Every structure is written in C-alpha cells, then in structure tokens.
Amino acid sequence: MKRIPLLATVALFSLVLLAPLFAAETMEIIENTGKIKIGWRDSSSPFASLNKETGKHEGFCVDMGNLITEMLSQRFNKKIEVIPLTIASKDRLPKLMAKEIDIEMGNTTHTQARDRDVDFSLTFFVSETTFLLPRDSKIKSVNDLNGKRIGAVKGSTNLTALNTKIAEGIFTPKGAILQAETHDDGLAALQLDTLDLYCGDRSILEGLKMKAAQPDLWRVADFAIAYEPYGFMVRKGNSDLRDFVDNTLVWAIQTGRFQELYDKWMGPKGVVPIPMSKAYQDYLQLIKYPLKTDWWKKPPPPK
Predict the structure, then answer these.
(1) Under CATH, which number does the domain 128-227 receive?
(2) Beta strand pairing status for 125-134 and 197-201?
(3) 64-87: pLDDT as tens digits
(4) Which of 65, 172, 258, 267 could, after both became Cys, cross-link 263 (CB 3.0–4.6 A)?
(5) What are the extents of the domains in the chain?
(6) pLDDT at residue 143 greater than cutoff 60
C-alpha cells in the first residue's frame, strides 16, 4: 500500500479545516465584517440612480437596501455599513458572481436564464417592455415598428424581447438594434434623432422622459411587447440572505413602510409617478405571509 507523503497530508488537512471559511455564507461575512456591498444602477430612476450633485445613489431600491441594512443591524446587534457600488446591465451578474457585491438591487427582471446562475428575492415590482418616442410620432402599436430605428440597453431583457419579436417575424426594424451602454445613452440617441424609439421598462422610460430637457416632447407608448417582474439578486447558496431580504420585504408591506417608499418615488407626488395597478396591489397582499414579531433576530445555533 502506498504511503501518502507527510506534506500532502498536512495540505489536505489544512484544506479540510479551511473549507468552512471558504464556504461561509454572505450573511456570516456581513456579520463578521460589519459591511454589506450593494450594487445599484446609476441611471435607472426611480429605482436607483446616481445623484451627480451629491455623488450618492438614490431611489426606491436604494431606500429598500438601507431598510434591509437597518434590519441586519438589529439582527447582529451592531451597525452594518452599506458599501455602495455602481453596476451596469452588462456587469451586474459578473460582479455578483465574483463577490464584488453581496446583493444587486435594481430593476432586474427575474428570468429562467438568470435563475440558473443566481437566486432572486420575491418579486417587488412588475413593469412592461415598451417604448419611449416623440409625442407626435404616429406609432400606436407593434404593427407600426417595421422600418423603425430602435435602441435598447445592451444585455437587457428588453433587448431580448425585441430580438424575440423580430425572430418571430412580428416586425422588422431598420438595421440592427442600437445597443446603448446606459439608459441615458439611449435617451441621448433619441434626442439626437439617431433613433425613432427607445425600448425599455415602462417604469424606467417614465423616469427618462422626466430627465429630458423638454419632457412634454416625449411619450411612453400605450402598448407592450413583454412583462418584467423585478427581483433582488443574491448568489446561490445564500438562502439565509435571500430569506432575510424576503422577510424584510414582507414586513415592509405589512407595516406600511413599502407603501411609504413607493409613494416617495412612484406615488402621485413622487419623483416618477407610476400608478399601482389593481393586480399589483392584490399581489402585494398575497405575499404577506405570517412573520414572528422578532423575525429579524438571529436564530440560536443548532444543538
């Protein structure tokens, strides 16, 4: 029988001892470091955008991230600090997978393809894939998209929806779809008349319209080509963090905090008014599962 060299034995034993450290869940790392790294967009108002004057992120998802952090501080009985990081549509998954961020909080659509790589929280918002276009445009339905110059953000579900409709023969645009790096770039292309219409989530397009130099010159289309359920992304193998996020979301709905934040950013007097549909209101009521009064507390270690 062959003998295992002493050095190899020591190395193997060291790996066994270190395995729990390498396998530590994000919640454990947050507790040990006192920090949580949150990825937010820089141009996706009203969900997350970067205020150029303050240099800080702001929006509905930013406030939700701060609320989650507030509850994490109570769970660990210590102040948890938010480390904000700016992400883009094309790098949000890679940065999450590479552990550059602990959670992505923005207008990310929960899809089957993404679900293979990451876990999603409960859906917190549902939008539509539609278009921003000049107010005097004669485009009224998907049938009017033939021969039009269309743009969308690179790596977005909006781009996927466009390509799907094109492949199905629903319409044929003029040339290739312009793939913008950011929504602001898409708006700029529209204003420069490089595009006839820009594709995105209705909620984001309403925000873009408000950012335009002359908002009254633009409108968001009345039709949609797809629907977008938003969720917060965490890495797989981090069910503790995902469950905590879900519980915070449900608690916020139960206590009215969710509605307060929604009204602040998307209510009638909000930054980007987006009326709550009856179906959306019903959905929020349906996901209010029972929670213990001290649900945020850290459970005792197993015996």
Answers:
(1) 3.40.190.10
(2) antiparallel
(3) 999 999 999 999 999 999 999 999
(4) 267
(5) 24-124+231-286, 128-227
(6) yes
